[in-house]
Design a protein that fits this description.
single chain; about 80 residues; 4 helices; globular
Length: about 80
């Protein structure tokens, strides 16, 4: 069971203070690409992307990529 399968309401994108880069990284996660590919696209290291992903996950209240992608699709983040 994922966090989004529970009775907890989904946090809307407007209610979360994400940095511009965290938004970009979350949108990239919705694509079928690796962290290495995201890092290359953004001209940063894989570790930088991992840190941005971890921080974004904490802010949106998820712990897996699948949950983050589901959040992106339901939250209105674009």
């Amino acid at each position: 069971m994922t966090m989004l399968d529970t009775d907890r309401p989904t946090i809307a994108a407007a209610d979360v203070h994400l940095t511009g880069r965290e938004r970009v990284v979350l949108l990239e996660l919705a694509e079928d690409v690796t962290l290495e590919e995201i890092a290359a696209r953004l001209w940063v290291t894989r570790n930088t992307v991992k840190t941005q992903v971890r921080t974004a996950y904490r802010k949106i209240g998820v712990s897996t990529r699948a949950d983050a992608v589901a959040w992106v699709r339901t939250s209105g983040l674009r």
